């Protein structure tokens, strides 16, 4: 007698129903649990339920963190979490990055371990809902934002924090996990992190899921509406949501898929970027004081330290370093319709911390203050078009902040701006290409194609237009 | 009056006809130019047309190459081509790589520039033909093999060799190039190269193409037949051919595409591999003599030097270092049909020189001699199954050599071997997964998924069975 098969029979390589189910959730302006109109009150209530306070402190008051005597690198005595080190970046074909240099030194965060950013999905009344968390991060301007179900460094879930278990982690790691909808390693800020990537996961639960304090079930339509509010949907949520296989079925584009791949390959091969990790103490033009490490011209960002008191976090109090950008950023896609098909203009970006030479990013991604001292030709292309866009050309605008566990008040204006042939020609300058959101959705199934700022905007591009807008 | 559009109107993202045209070429057992039966004589004639000789020389006789006094690194005085340096690799979850160590030192080739490996395609009598070149590489056991149309390092085509122009390069670089069919950066041997990748291109010409000496037009069916001969189709040809969008339409598999992506992501996150470049002189257990750098146990590979005299190469004579493996390798996929759909067993492989922690490779990829001293449990999984496979289970077998411009007599037996539940269970051990050739073809549209040995076998998997076999 033959033994029964060890696994189910063959499966379809692609789940044909998934995209229509995602479309259903995107079209659902309300869900079964929390009404969008009640969200702000719920978030405020969650904030009141926990008493937390973040204060700047001198480096000397960091607990467990210190500067290495020999290298000047800033690290934790456990050897875990992350370190602040130095990086020397050399490239031939500048200007790229957040400064017009072909060769520069900077502090950088080194955090080699791969964390999990995971959103749990469950169907209620036939509509997929996403389990989101009200989570405090010390660098958020408003402390509490909407995070994925799970936002865990390896230190988190292997207990280096000596804190509470990571809630819902069993749906993402280990034998009991749910049905995977997306699972891909994506890069984070290449200007601030050295080769950091996190596992972006979306997992569907089949059985009952208990709803814990600080968590809520939302449809994609509800989350899309919240993406229009400032500082509500955190960076980790935005990057995970960008990895959803969205049901954009546009089968035509200015560039065929292979032409787009070829353009990306050409940009990767064209740039010759060399990076070298160096001791933080040896980084020229950056000065360490009692409370900050900053650039001598006051540009780019500062390394600072904070103390945190909180009740609902993994541990009840801690201190840590953060990177604090010196000004508000501008992160924008220029957008045009060609033959009725929406396109956005991507830029091939060199950032010192990327694993490969380039990733695609938004048309504009910079902190304008860093360029104020430069002559107009040295400023980023298309920045003026974005900054001077009249209101009727702005399809989307919101202020979002970057990951509050590493970055303090790192706010950017995220925009999608309509352009025309005079602003943004159909044949763009070298380093830029017109692509459709559907093409970006195909690319983000794989890592290292679209940077975290681009993914933030893709999450919005893929959302349905909210009602009343 | 409106100006005419700058580009053609929108295109289909995917060329629906391409796969059927590739199938047509794969089915064509003869082409319009050189008959398969005449190929061996043509290649031999090309060999006689050029007088070349390769001899081993002591390092002291290298011209322009020397060991750096401080680091012991071996490099060229121009600073170009490549260097031989040291690498320290540390990993938590061994054994992987070509030695059962969680921590090892080794010499490694550093060649940061990205070359072009390109095959030109043109339709004759409605059937796509591929332009292949009889090319001498000093490390090939038989010197002359069939290479892509273009096989050019950046030094080649920017004239660091001070030699002749690279023939047909204008179809792959610059404004006059043809229609791109594939264009992707793919890794090369992670055990021997530090983060090396080359641009794998397939480009279709629309106009007339002159046929130069040493070149021939072959159909895919012809090339498939040649893949059954030992040491004929060189590594560069095999990797480029693996990137063809082959018309395997199997829509079902044991793992859905997202389950496969998730497994790969999990393997990438699970392995914690750190690499550090170190001076060659500081690499322990490797000894430099007058003519070789070798491991004290005689295992793995040797660094050697050769002089080359040749007439049809970019320059008429040169000397260079090569890596010479100490034994013949075994590179094999175990294969099973599930529900009538062919699958192969891929391994998640850690190699010190990979850009990311792992890439997929064949089921078995090793040099058996390197493991002869170890107890059976420490030898590579599935090696015995491959070595002891009876003839009627061997679906494919040929000896191929690795890139003859860097590796001397680096031969492996490439095999595809039928397995059953007792040899290779449907639920494989950790680090292995069953995938279909169609799934591998989807993955190699992107870089850093399938290693060069896996791609060599994929080129064969995608070929039609030759007649009479």
TrEMBL record, chains A, B:
DTDP-4-dehydro-6-deoxy-alpha-D-glucose 2 binds at residues 191, 286, 349, 365-367, 370-371. Residues 38-244, 259-461 form the dTDP-4-dehydro-6-deoxy-alpha-D-glucopyranose 2,3-dehydratase domain. This is Putative NDP-hexose 2,3-dehydratase. GO terms for molecular function: lyase activity. DTDP-4-dehydro-6-deoxy-alpha-D-glucose 1 binds at residues 65, 153-157, 236, 403-406. Gene3D superfamilies: EvaA sugar 2,3-dehydratase subunit (3.90.79.40). The lineage of its organism: Bacteria, Bacillati, Actinomycetota, Actinomycetes, Kitasatosporales. It comes from Actinacidiphila reveromycinica.
